Amino acid sequence: MGAAYCIPEIFVGPDDPWLDQSDVIDELSRYEAACEKTAADLRALHQKVSSQVGPDEAAIFRAHEQILRDPAFSGKIRRSISQQHMTAQAALQRLLDEYTQIFRRTKDEYLKERLADLRDVIVRLSGHLSPALKDDMLSDSGPLILVADEILPSQVITLGDRTVAGIVTQRGGTTSHAAILARSRGIPAVSGVRGILRQVANGTLLVVDGREGHVLVNPNSEVESAYRKLQREFVYLKDALAENRDQPARSADGHDVELLANINNVADARAAVAMGATGVGLFRTEYLFLTHRDVPDEDEQYEAYREIIEASPGHRVTIRTLDLGGDKTIPYLGHDREANPFMGWRSIRLSFEHPGFFATQIRAALRAAADAKGSNGDVRLMFPMITTLEEMRRVRGMVRRAYRQLQEKGVPCAPVPIGLMLEVPAAAVAIDSLLEVVDFVSIGSNDLVQYLMAADRDNPKVSHLCQPLSPPVLRVLTNVIRACRLAGKPVTLCGEMAGQPRAFVLLFGMGLRSFSMSPALVPTIKELLSHLSIERAAEIHRHALQLKTTGRVSRYLAECLHDLAPGLEMFDVT
Fold first, then answer.
1. What domains appear along the chain, each with residue ranges and CATH number?
2. Which of 67, 71, 107, 125 is the most core-located residue (most Cβ within 10 A)?
3. Of these residues, 177, 315, 354, 541, which one is catalytic?
4. Catalytic residue at 531?
Protein backbone atom coordinates (compact mmCIF):
# COMPACT_ATOMS: atom_id res chain seq x y z
CA MET A 1 0.00 0.00 0.00
CA GLY A 2 1.27 3.48 -0.80
CA ALA A 3 1.09 6.66 -2.83
CA ALA A 4 1.31 6.36 -6.62
CA TYR A 5 4.43 7.68 -8.30
CA CYS A 6 3.83 7.75 -12.06
CA ILE A 7 6.83 7.36 -14.35
CA PRO A 8 6.27 8.61 -17.92
CA GLU A 9 8.47 7.06 -20.57
CA ILE A 10 11.14 9.74 -20.38
CA PHE A 11 10.77 10.38 -16.68
CA VAL A 12 9.44 13.95 -16.67
CA GLY A 13 8.74 13.55 -12.98
CA PRO A 14 6.29 15.42 -10.77
CA ASP A 15 7.71 18.90 -11.34
CA ASP A 16 5.77 21.73 -12.99
CA PRO A 17 6.45 21.45 -16.77
CA TRP A 18 6.29 25.25 -17.20
CA LEU A 19 9.06 27.77 -16.63
CA ASP A 20 9.14 31.36 -15.45
CA GLN A 21 10.58 33.76 -18.02
CA SER A 22 13.63 34.26 -15.80
CA ASP A 23 14.44 30.54 -15.95
CA VAL A 24 14.39 30.09 -19.74
CA ILE A 25 18.08 30.88 -20.31
CA ASP A 26 19.18 28.49 -17.57
CA GLU A 27 16.93 25.74 -19.00
CA LEU A 28 18.40 26.20 -22.48
CA SER A 29 21.87 25.90 -20.96
CA ARG A 30 20.82 22.73 -19.14
CA TYR A 31 19.54 21.27 -22.38
CA GLU A 32 22.76 22.14 -24.27
CA ALA A 33 24.86 20.57 -21.51
CA ALA A 34 22.73 17.41 -21.67
CA CYS A 35 23.22 17.31 -25.46
CA GLU A 36 26.99 17.46 -25.08
CA LYS A 37 27.00 14.71 -22.46
CA THR A 38 24.76 12.56 -24.63
CA ALA A 39 26.98 13.09 -27.66
CA ALA A 40 30.03 12.11 -25.60
CA ASP A 41 28.21 8.96 -24.44
CA LEU A 42 27.36 8.01 -28.02
CA ARG A 43 30.93 8.56 -29.28
CA ALA A 44 32.34 6.46 -26.43
CA LEU A 45 29.79 3.73 -27.11
CA HIS A 46 30.64 3.71 -30.81
CA GLN A 47 34.33 3.29 -30.09
CA LYS A 48 33.88 0.57 -27.46
CA VAL A 49 31.26 -1.45 -29.36
CA SER A 50 33.30 -1.20 -32.55
CA SER A 51 36.34 -2.70 -30.85
CA GLN A 52 34.50 -5.36 -28.83
CA VAL A 53 31.65 -6.39 -31.11
CA GLY A 54 32.20 -4.93 -34.58
CA PRO A 55 31.82 -1.79 -36.72
CA ASP A 56 28.45 -2.81 -38.13
CA GLU A 57 26.92 -3.14 -34.66
CA ALA A 58 28.53 0.14 -33.57
CA ALA A 59 27.00 2.06 -36.48
CA ILE A 60 23.75 2.47 -34.55
CA PHE A 61 25.43 5.02 -32.27
CA ARG A 62 26.63 7.13 -35.20
CA ALA A 63 22.99 7.23 -36.34
CA HIS A 64 21.87 8.23 -32.86
CA GLU A 65 24.36 11.08 -32.78
CA GLN A 66 23.06 12.27 -36.13
CA ILE A 67 19.53 12.37 -34.69
CA LEU A 68 20.82 14.31 -31.69
CA ARG A 69 22.55 16.86 -33.95
CA ASP A 70 19.68 17.11 -36.45
CA PRO A 71 18.53 20.79 -36.63
CA ALA A 72 14.86 19.80 -36.85
CA PHE A 73 15.11 17.70 -33.69
CA SER A 74 17.08 20.21 -31.60
CA GLY A 75 15.17 23.17 -33.04
CA LYS A 76 11.84 21.82 -31.81
CA ILE A 77 13.19 21.37 -28.29
CA ARG A 78 14.81 24.79 -28.16
CA ARG A 79 11.63 26.51 -29.44
CA SER A 80 9.50 24.70 -26.86
CA ILE A 81 11.81 25.97 -24.12
CA SER A 82 12.40 29.53 -25.35
CA GLN A 83 9.00 30.36 -26.87
CA GLN A 84 6.56 28.24 -24.84
CA HIS A 85 8.52 28.15 -21.58
CA MET A 86 8.44 24.36 -21.27
CA THR A 87 11.03 22.45 -19.26
CA ALA A 88 13.44 20.41 -21.35
CA GLN A 89 11.96 17.14 -20.07
CA ALA A 90 8.43 18.22 -20.91
CA ALA A 91 9.60 19.35 -24.38
CA LEU A 92 11.20 15.95 -24.96
CA GLN A 93 8.04 14.17 -23.86
CA ARG A 94 5.89 16.27 -26.21
CA LEU A 95 8.27 15.65 -29.11
CA LEU A 96 8.19 11.92 -28.47
CA ASP A 97 4.39 11.94 -28.28
CA GLU A 98 4.21 13.89 -31.55
CA TYR A 99 6.47 11.51 -33.43
CA THR A 100 4.77 8.47 -31.92
CA GLN A 101 1.41 9.62 -33.32
CA ILE A 102 2.95 10.20 -36.74
CA PHE A 103 4.81 6.88 -36.90
CA ARG A 104 1.85 4.91 -35.52
CA ARG A 105 0.01 5.47 -38.79
CA THR A 106 2.77 4.02 -40.97
CA LYS A 107 3.16 0.38 -41.94
CA ASP A 108 6.74 0.88 -43.09
CA GLU A 109 8.99 -1.24 -40.84
CA TYR A 110 12.03 0.94 -41.59
CA LEU A 111 10.22 4.05 -40.33
CA LYS A 112 9.04 2.20 -37.23
CA GLU A 113 12.65 1.29 -36.50
CA ARG A 114 13.58 4.97 -36.75
CA LEU A 115 11.04 5.73 -34.03
CA ALA A 116 12.84 3.24 -31.79
CA ASP A 117 16.11 5.07 -32.49
CA LEU A 118 14.49 8.42 -31.71
CA ARG A 119 13.14 7.06 -28.44
CA ASP A 120 16.60 5.80 -27.46
CA VAL A 121 18.10 9.24 -28.05
CA ILE A 122 15.36 11.01 -26.10
CA VAL A 123 15.62 8.62 -23.14
CA ARG A 124 19.40 9.06 -23.06
CA LEU A 125 19.02 12.85 -23.15
CA SER A 126 16.42 12.74 -20.41
CA GLY A 127 18.76 10.71 -18.23
CA HIS A 128 21.24 13.60 -18.25
CA LEU A 129 18.52 16.10 -17.42
CA SER A 130 16.95 14.36 -14.47
CA PRO A 131 17.23 10.99 -12.69
CA ALA A 132 14.40 8.58 -13.40
CA LEU A 133 13.56 8.09 -9.75
CA LYS A 134 14.07 11.16 -7.59
CA ASP A 135 15.59 10.56 -4.17
CA ASP A 136 13.35 13.13 -2.50
CA MET A 137 10.21 11.47 -3.86
CA LEU A 138 11.38 8.03 -2.82
CA SER A 139 12.48 8.90 0.69
CA ASP A 140 10.22 11.63 2.03
CA SER A 141 6.77 10.50 0.90
CA GLY A 142 6.50 7.18 2.68
CA PRO A 143 5.92 3.93 0.82
CA LEU A 144 5.40 4.47 -2.91
CA ILE A 145 3.78 2.46 -5.67
CA LEU A 146 5.66 2.91 -8.95
CA VAL A 147 3.23 3.14 -11.87
CA ALA A 148 4.54 2.99 -15.42
CA ASP A 149 3.90 1.69 -18.89
CA GLU A 150 6.81 -0.67 -18.30
CA ILE A 151 9.54 -0.78 -15.68
CA LEU A 152 12.99 -1.25 -17.17
CA PRO A 153 15.49 -3.64 -15.55
CA SER A 154 17.83 -0.73 -14.80
CA GLN A 155 15.07 1.05 -12.86
CA VAL A 156 14.20 -1.91 -10.63
CA ILE A 157 17.85 -2.69 -9.94
CA THR A 158 18.62 0.90 -8.90
CA LEU A 159 15.80 0.99 -6.34
CA GLY A 160 18.28 -0.06 -3.68
CA ASP A 161 16.71 0.00 -0.20
CA ARG A 162 14.21 2.73 -1.02
CA THR A 163 10.69 2.35 0.33
CA VAL A 164 8.98 1.09 -2.80
CA ALA A 165 5.92 -0.83 -1.68
CA GLY A 166 4.73 -2.08 -5.07
CA ILE A 167 4.94 -1.84 -8.84
CA VAL A 168 2.13 -1.59 -11.38
CA THR A 169 2.75 -1.67 -15.13
CA GLN A 170 0.52 -1.38 -18.16
CA ARG A 171 2.52 -3.94 -20.12
CA GLY A 172 4.07 -7.31 -19.35
CA GLY A 173 2.98 -10.41 -17.50
CA THR A 174 3.80 -12.36 -14.35
CA THR A 175 7.03 -13.69 -15.86
CA SER A 176 8.20 -10.53 -17.64
CA HIS A 177 11.70 -9.41 -16.72
CA ALA A 178 10.29 -6.49 -14.71
CA ALA A 179 8.04 -8.79 -12.66
CA ILE A 180 10.88 -11.25 -12.06
CA LEU A 181 13.20 -8.49 -10.91
CA ALA A 182 10.56 -7.04 -8.58
CA ARG A 183 9.86 -10.46 -7.11
CA SER A 184 13.55 -11.01 -6.41
CA ARG A 185 13.48 -7.86 -4.28
CA GLY A 186 10.30 -8.93 -2.48
CA ILE A 187 8.27 -6.13 -4.09
CA PRO A 188 4.62 -6.96 -4.96
CA ALA A 189 3.96 -6.31 -8.65
CA VAL A 190 0.95 -6.47 -10.96
CA SER A 191 1.52 -6.30 -14.70
CA GLY A 192 -0.74 -5.86 -17.73
CA VAL A 193 -3.01 -3.24 -16.11
CA ARG A 194 -3.97 -1.33 -19.24
CA GLY A 195 -4.86 2.33 -18.84
CA ILE A 196 -3.62 2.66 -15.24
CA LEU A 197 -1.59 5.79 -16.06
CA ARG A 198 -4.81 7.52 -17.17
CA GLN A 199 -6.58 6.63 -13.93
CA VAL A 200 -4.04 7.67 -11.30
CA ALA A 201 -1.89 10.69 -10.52
CA ASN A 202 1.09 11.19 -8.23
CA GLY A 203 -0.06 10.79 -4.64
CA THR A 204 -3.12 8.62 -5.37
CA LEU A 205 -3.51 5.92 -2.71
CA LEU A 206 -3.11 2.45 -4.22
CA VAL A 207 -3.33 -1.09 -2.94
CA VAL A 208 -1.30 -3.66 -4.91
CA ASP A 209 -2.33 -7.24 -4.22
CA GLY A 210 0.35 -9.23 -6.04
CA ARG A 211 -1.14 -12.58 -5.04
CA GLU A 212 -4.59 -12.00 -6.50
CA GLY A 213 -3.41 -9.65 -9.27
CA HIS A 214 -5.59 -6.75 -8.07
CA VAL A 215 -4.90 -3.01 -7.98
CA LEU A 216 -7.29 -0.85 -5.94
CA VAL A 217 -7.40 2.91 -6.58
CA ASN A 218 -8.40 5.21 -3.69
CA PRO A 219 -10.00 2.47 -1.57
CA ASN A 220 -12.62 3.55 0.95
CA SER A 221 -11.82 3.43 4.66
CA GLU A 222 -13.34 -0.04 5.19
CA VAL A 223 -11.40 -1.59 2.30
CA GLU A 224 -8.20 0.19 3.33
CA SER A 225 -8.58 -1.09 6.89
CA ALA A 226 -9.13 -4.68 5.68
CA TYR A 227 -6.03 -4.58 3.51
CA ARG A 228 -3.91 -3.05 6.24
CA LYS A 229 -4.92 -5.96 8.50
CA LEU A 230 -4.01 -8.43 5.73
CA GLN A 231 -0.71 -6.61 5.25
CA ARG A 232 0.15 -6.92 8.94
CA GLU A 233 -0.64 -10.64 8.91
CA PHE A 234 1.47 -11.15 5.79
CA VAL A 235 4.47 -9.28 7.21
CA TYR A 236 4.22 -11.16 10.50
CA LEU A 237 4.13 -14.55 8.78
CA LYS A 238 6.94 -13.61 6.36
CA ASP A 239 9.16 -12.49 9.24
CA ALA A 240 8.41 -15.66 11.17
CA LEU A 241 9.31 -17.85 8.19
CA ALA A 242 12.58 -15.97 7.64
CA GLU A 243 13.76 -17.31 10.99
CA ASN A 244 14.26 -20.73 9.36
CA ARG A 245 17.21 -19.40 7.32
CA ASP A 246 19.76 -21.48 9.26
CA GLN A 247 17.73 -24.68 9.21
CA PRO A 248 18.34 -27.32 6.52
CA ALA A 249 15.84 -27.69 3.68
CA ARG A 250 14.51 -31.11 4.63
CA SER A 251 11.29 -32.97 3.91
CA ALA A 252 8.98 -34.32 6.59
CA ASP A 253 10.51 -37.79 6.11
CA GLY A 254 14.10 -36.55 6.38
CA HIS A 255 15.23 -36.08 2.77
CA ASP A 256 17.43 -33.06 2.00
CA VAL A 257 16.56 -30.73 -0.87
CA GLU A 258 18.62 -28.00 -2.50
CA LEU A 259 16.99 -24.56 -2.40
CA LEU A 260 18.95 -22.10 -4.53
CA ALA A 261 18.37 -18.48 -5.55
CA ASN A 262 17.85 -16.71 -8.86
CA ILE A 263 19.78 -13.44 -8.81
CA ASN A 264 20.56 -10.44 -10.99
CA ASN A 265 23.12 -8.53 -8.94
CA VAL A 266 25.06 -8.36 -5.68
CA ALA A 267 22.05 -7.11 -3.70
CA ASP A 268 20.14 -10.25 -4.73
CA ALA A 269 23.11 -12.44 -3.77
CA ARG A 270 23.13 -10.91 -0.29
CA ALA A 271 19.38 -11.43 -0.05
CA ALA A 272 19.94 -15.09 -0.94
CA VAL A 273 22.28 -15.42 2.05
CA ALA A 274 19.80 -13.64 4.34
CA MET A 275 16.93 -15.89 3.24
CA GLY A 276 18.82 -19.15 3.77
CA ALA A 277 19.50 -20.26 0.18
CA THR A 278 22.47 -22.64 -0.14
CA GLY A 279 23.73 -21.26 -3.46
CA VAL A 280 22.79 -19.44 -6.64
CA GLY A 281 21.13 -21.62 -9.25
CA LEU A 282 20.75 -18.83 -11.82
CA PHE A 283 22.81 -15.67 -12.18
CA ARG A 284 21.28 -13.66 -15.02
CA THR A 285 24.33 -11.94 -16.49
CA GLU A 286 22.34 -9.92 -19.03
CA TYR A 287 21.36 -7.38 -16.38
CA LEU A 288 25.01 -6.37 -16.09
CA PHE A 289 24.83 -5.42 -19.77
CA LEU A 290 21.37 -3.85 -19.58
CA THR A 291 22.42 -1.52 -16.76
CA HIS A 292 26.00 -0.82 -17.81
CA ARG A 293 26.79 2.66 -19.09
CA ASP A 294 28.29 1.21 -22.28
CA VAL A 295 29.84 -2.23 -22.90
CA PRO A 296 31.44 -4.18 -20.04
CA ASP A 297 34.84 -5.50 -21.17
CA GLU A 298 36.44 -8.74 -19.98
CA ASP A 299 38.03 -7.24 -16.88
CA GLU A 300 34.79 -5.49 -15.87
CA GLN A 301 32.83 -8.71 -16.33
CA TYR A 302 35.41 -10.69 -14.38
CA GLU A 303 35.24 -8.23 -11.47
CA ALA A 304 31.43 -8.29 -11.52
CA TYR A 305 31.29 -12.10 -11.52
CA ARG A 306 33.94 -12.32 -8.79
CA GLU A 307 31.95 -9.91 -6.61
CA ILE A 308 28.77 -11.93 -7.16
CA ILE A 309 30.52 -15.17 -6.23
CA GLU A 310 31.99 -13.67 -3.06
CA ALA A 311 28.55 -12.40 -1.98
CA SER A 312 26.66 -15.62 -2.79
CA PRO A 313 25.83 -18.43 -0.34
CA GLY A 314 28.77 -20.84 -0.14
CA HIS A 315 30.35 -19.07 -3.12
CA ARG A 316 28.25 -21.42 -5.28
CA VAL A 317 27.00 -19.82 -8.50
CA THR A 318 25.62 -21.04 -11.81
CA ILE A 319 26.41 -18.33 -14.35
CA ARG A 320 24.04 -18.12 -17.31
CA THR A 321 25.54 -16.51 -20.40
CA LEU A 322 23.75 -13.63 -22.09
CA ASP A 323 20.03 -14.19 -22.55
CA LEU A 324 19.22 -11.14 -24.64
CA GLY A 325 16.52 -10.65 -27.23
CA GLY A 326 12.76 -10.84 -26.92
CA ASP A 327 11.91 -8.30 -24.19
CA LYS A 328 15.56 -7.64 -23.22
CA THR A 329 17.58 -5.76 -25.81
CA ILE A 330 20.61 -3.52 -25.92
CA PRO A 331 21.23 -1.17 -28.86
CA TYR A 332 24.35 -2.90 -30.16
CA LEU A 333 22.93 -6.45 -30.05
CA GLY A 334 19.57 -7.72 -31.23
CA HIS A 335 18.21 -4.26 -32.06
CA ASP A 336 16.66 -5.18 -35.41
CA ARG A 337 12.89 -5.37 -35.45
CA GLU A 338 11.60 -8.93 -35.81
CA ALA A 339 8.11 -10.19 -36.47
CA ASN A 340 8.41 -12.64 -33.56
CA PRO A 341 11.42 -11.72 -31.39
CA PHE A 342 10.82 -14.36 -28.70
CA MET A 343 11.27 -17.10 -31.29
CA GLY A 344 13.92 -15.33 -33.33
CA TRP A 345 17.45 -14.01 -33.00
CA ARG A 346 18.02 -14.21 -29.27
CA SER A 347 19.98 -15.86 -26.46
CA ILE A 348 22.55 -18.42 -27.67
CA ARG A 349 21.67 -17.68 -31.30
CA LEU A 350 22.66 -14.07 -30.84
CA SER A 351 25.84 -15.11 -29.01
CA PHE A 352 26.87 -17.40 -31.87
CA GLU A 353 26.50 -14.44 -34.24
CA HIS A 354 29.15 -12.54 -32.22
CA PRO A 355 31.69 -15.23 -31.26
CA GLY A 356 34.39 -12.77 -30.16
CA PHE A 357 31.99 -10.94 -27.87
CA PHE A 358 30.67 -14.27 -26.56
CA ALA A 359 34.20 -15.58 -25.90
CA THR A 360 34.91 -12.49 -23.78
CA GLN A 361 32.10 -13.45 -21.42
CA ILE A 362 33.23 -17.07 -21.25
CA ARG A 363 36.82 -16.05 -20.41
CA ALA A 364 35.59 -13.70 -17.68
CA ALA A 365 33.54 -16.53 -16.14
CA LEU A 366 36.47 -18.98 -16.25
CA ARG A 367 38.69 -16.41 -14.51
CA ALA A 368 36.08 -15.88 -11.80
CA ALA A 369 35.79 -19.66 -11.38
CA ALA A 370 39.48 -19.81 -10.43
CA ASP A 371 38.87 -17.34 -7.60
CA ALA A 372 35.85 -19.35 -6.45
CA LYS A 373 37.92 -22.52 -6.19
CA GLY A 374 40.42 -20.65 -4.04
CA SER A 375 37.61 -19.98 -1.53
CA ASN A 376 36.16 -23.52 -1.75
CA GLY A 377 33.35 -22.27 -3.98
CA ASP A 378 31.80 -23.82 -7.04
CA VAL A 379 31.04 -22.13 -10.37
CA ARG A 380 29.08 -23.66 -13.22
CA LEU A 381 28.44 -22.24 -16.68
CA MET A 382 25.02 -22.54 -18.30
CA PHE A 383 23.86 -21.65 -21.81
CA PRO A 384 20.31 -20.47 -22.61
CA MET A 385 17.89 -21.54 -25.32
CA ILE A 386 19.86 -24.55 -26.53
CA THR A 387 17.79 -26.28 -29.20
CA THR A 388 20.00 -28.92 -30.84
CA LEU A 389 22.86 -31.28 -30.07
CA GLU A 390 25.00 -29.41 -32.62
CA GLU A 391 24.60 -26.17 -30.65
CA MET A 392 25.73 -27.81 -27.43
CA ARG A 393 28.79 -29.30 -29.10
CA ARG A 394 29.64 -25.88 -30.53
CA VAL A 395 29.35 -24.35 -27.06
CA ARG A 396 31.73 -26.90 -25.55
CA GLY A 397 34.26 -26.17 -28.30
CA MET A 398 34.09 -22.43 -27.58
CA VAL A 399 34.62 -23.01 -23.86
CA ARG A 400 37.68 -25.19 -24.59
CA ARG A 401 39.17 -22.50 -26.83
CA ALA A 402 38.55 -19.76 -24.24
CA TYR A 403 40.23 -21.90 -21.57
CA ARG A 404 43.28 -22.48 -23.82
CA GLN A 405 43.53 -18.75 -24.59
CA LEU A 406 43.71 -17.92 -20.90
CA GLN A 407 46.24 -20.66 -20.17
CA GLU A 408 48.49 -19.53 -23.01
CA LYS A 409 48.50 -16.00 -21.54
CA GLY A 410 49.18 -17.31 -18.06
CA VAL A 411 45.90 -15.90 -16.73
CA PRO A 412 44.48 -17.84 -13.74
CA CYS A 413 41.36 -19.77 -14.77
CA ALA A 414 39.53 -22.97 -13.91
CA PRO A 415 37.51 -25.55 -15.83
CA VAL A 416 33.80 -25.53 -14.99
CA PRO A 417 30.85 -27.90 -15.39
CA ILE A 418 28.89 -27.00 -18.53
CA GLY A 419 25.11 -27.18 -18.69
CA LEU A 420 22.14 -26.12 -20.74
CA MET A 421 19.01 -24.24 -19.85
CA LEU A 422 16.18 -26.41 -21.12
CA GLU A 423 13.46 -24.08 -22.36
CA VAL A 424 12.87 -25.12 -25.99
CA PRO A 425 10.42 -28.00 -26.56
CA ALA A 426 12.78 -29.55 -29.15
CA ALA A 427 15.43 -29.91 -26.47
CA ALA A 428 12.91 -31.50 -24.13
CA VAL A 429 11.99 -34.06 -26.80
CA ALA A 430 15.67 -34.81 -27.51
CA ILE A 431 16.79 -34.71 -23.89
CA ASP A 432 18.40 -38.19 -24.03
CA SER A 433 20.92 -37.18 -26.72
CA LEU A 434 21.65 -33.81 -25.11
CA LEU A 435 22.40 -35.45 -21.76
CA GLU A 436 25.41 -37.13 -23.40
CA VAL A 437 27.20 -33.78 -23.86
CA VAL A 438 26.22 -31.78 -20.74
CA ASP A 439 27.23 -31.96 -17.09
CA PHE A 440 23.91 -30.68 -15.76
CA VAL A 441 20.49 -29.39 -16.83
CA SER A 442 18.55 -26.37 -15.61
CA ILE A 443 14.91 -26.20 -16.64
CA GLY A 444 13.78 -22.69 -17.55
CA SER A 445 10.08 -23.19 -17.01
CA ASN A 446 9.05 -19.62 -17.93
CA ASP A 447 10.08 -19.91 -21.56
CA LEU A 448 9.39 -23.64 -21.78
CA VAL A 449 5.75 -23.03 -20.86
CA GLN A 450 5.25 -20.21 -23.37
CA TYR A 451 6.86 -22.20 -26.18
CA LEU A 452 4.86 -25.32 -25.38
CA MET A 453 1.62 -23.33 -25.33
CA ALA A 454 2.55 -21.08 -28.31
CA ALA A 455 1.55 -18.03 -26.25
CA ASP A 456 3.62 -14.92 -25.52
CA ARG A 457 3.80 -14.71 -21.73
CA ASP A 458 4.01 -10.88 -21.88
CA ASN A 459 0.89 -10.52 -24.05
CA PRO A 460 -2.13 -10.01 -21.75
CA LYS A 461 -4.47 -11.35 -24.46
CA VAL A 462 -2.89 -14.82 -24.45
CA SER A 463 -0.94 -14.94 -21.18
CA HIS A 464 -3.78 -16.94 -19.62
CA LEU A 465 -2.52 -19.88 -21.70
CA CYS A 466 0.92 -19.76 -20.04
CA GLN A 467 -0.09 -21.94 -17.11
CA PRO A 468 2.72 -24.01 -15.56
CA LEU A 469 0.13 -26.41 -14.10
CA SER A 470 -1.38 -27.32 -17.47
CA PRO A 471 -1.35 -31.09 -18.18
CA PRO A 472 0.97 -30.85 -21.25
CA VAL A 473 3.57 -28.94 -19.22
CA LEU A 474 3.42 -31.44 -16.37
CA ARG A 475 3.95 -34.36 -18.75
CA VAL A 476 6.98 -32.75 -20.39
CA LEU A 477 8.53 -31.88 -17.04
CA THR A 478 7.93 -35.39 -15.73
CA ASN A 479 9.73 -36.90 -18.75
CA VAL A 480 12.69 -34.49 -18.56
CA ILE A 481 13.25 -34.96 -14.82
CA ARG A 482 12.98 -38.75 -15.16
CA ALA A 483 15.51 -38.77 -18.04
CA CYS A 484 18.01 -36.66 -16.08
CA ARG A 485 17.74 -38.85 -13.00
CA LEU A 486 18.18 -42.05 -15.04
CA ALA A 487 21.28 -40.58 -16.70
CA GLY A 488 22.70 -39.47 -13.34
CA LYS A 489 22.85 -35.83 -14.43
CA PRO A 490 21.97 -33.08 -11.91
CA VAL A 491 18.77 -31.24 -12.80
CA THR A 492 17.42 -28.00 -11.33
CA LEU A 493 14.28 -26.03 -12.14
CA CYS A 494 14.96 -22.30 -12.04
CA GLY A 495 11.76 -20.83 -13.43
CA GLU A 496 9.04 -19.14 -11.40
CA MET A 497 7.39 -22.54 -10.80
CA ALA A 498 10.10 -23.40 -8.28
CA GLY A 499 8.85 -20.82 -5.79
CA GLN A 500 5.11 -21.46 -6.20
CA PRO A 501 3.79 -23.74 -3.43
CA ARG A 502 1.35 -25.69 -5.60
CA ALA A 503 3.90 -26.27 -8.33
CA PHE A 504 6.63 -27.15 -5.82
CA VAL A 505 4.56 -30.01 -4.42
CA LEU A 506 4.19 -31.48 -7.92
CA LEU A 507 7.85 -31.00 -8.87
CA PHE A 508 8.97 -32.70 -5.65
CA GLY A 509 6.62 -35.54 -6.50
CA MET A 510 8.26 -35.83 -9.95
CA GLY A 511 11.57 -36.53 -8.24
CA LEU A 512 13.11 -33.07 -8.51
CA ARG A 513 15.48 -32.32 -5.63
CA SER A 514 17.04 -29.01 -6.68
CA PHE A 515 15.05 -25.78 -7.00
CA SER A 516 16.14 -22.22 -7.76
CA MET A 517 13.84 -19.30 -7.04
CA SER A 518 13.63 -15.64 -6.08
CA PRO A 519 15.45 -15.24 -2.73
CA ALA A 520 12.34 -13.91 -0.99
CA LEU A 521 10.52 -17.21 -1.65
CA VAL A 522 13.09 -19.55 -0.08
CA PRO A 523 11.69 -19.45 3.51
CA THR A 524 8.17 -20.26 2.33
CA ILE A 525 9.27 -23.27 0.28
CA LYS A 526 11.53 -24.50 3.09
CA GLU A 527 8.56 -24.42 5.47
CA LEU A 528 6.31 -26.21 2.98
CA LEU A 529 8.94 -28.91 2.46
CA SER A 530 8.96 -29.66 6.19
CA HIS A 531 5.29 -30.71 5.89
CA LEU A 532 5.78 -32.85 2.77
CA SER A 533 7.01 -36.43 2.42
CA ILE A 534 8.26 -38.13 -0.75
CA GLU A 535 5.43 -40.67 -0.59
CA ARG A 536 2.74 -37.98 -0.27
CA ALA A 537 4.25 -35.85 -3.03
CA ALA A 538 4.50 -38.84 -5.38
CA GLU A 539 0.86 -39.69 -4.69
CA ILE A 540 -0.20 -36.10 -5.47
CA HIS A 541 1.84 -36.16 -8.67
CA ARG A 542 0.31 -39.44 -9.85
CA HIS A 543 -3.21 -38.14 -9.30
CA ALA A 544 -2.50 -34.76 -10.95
CA LEU A 545 -1.28 -36.51 -14.12
CA GLN A 546 -4.71 -38.13 -14.45
CA LEU A 547 -6.51 -34.78 -14.52
CA LYS A 548 -7.42 -33.37 -17.94
CA THR A 549 -7.60 -29.61 -17.45
CA THR A 550 -5.48 -26.90 -15.86
CA GLY A 551 -8.39 -25.78 -13.70
CA ARG A 552 -8.86 -29.22 -12.18
CA VAL A 553 -5.12 -29.60 -11.53
CA SER A 554 -4.99 -26.19 -9.86
CA ARG A 555 -8.02 -26.81 -7.67
CA TYR A 556 -6.75 -30.23 -6.63
CA LEU A 557 -3.36 -28.81 -5.65
CA ALA A 558 -5.03 -25.99 -3.70
CA GLU A 559 -6.86 -28.64 -1.67
CA CYS A 560 -3.62 -30.54 -1.08
CA LEU A 561 -1.82 -27.39 0.02
CA HIS A 562 -4.64 -26.61 2.45
CA ASP A 563 -4.27 -30.07 4.00
CA LEU A 564 -0.46 -29.95 4.11
CA ALA A 565 0.23 -26.42 5.34
CA PRO A 566 -2.84 -24.19 5.61
CA GLY A 567 -0.77 -21.35 7.05
CA LEU A 568 1.11 -21.02 3.75
CA GLU A 569 -1.93 -20.44 1.56
CA MET A 570 -1.33 -16.69 1.81
CA PHE A 571 1.86 -17.18 -0.23
CA ASP A 572 0.22 -19.29 -2.93
CA VAL A 573 -0.57 -17.81 -6.34
CA THR A 574 -4.07 -18.14 -7.73
1. 10-129 (1.10.274.10), 140-219 (3.50.30.10), 248-571 (3.20.20.60)
2. 125
3. 177
4. no
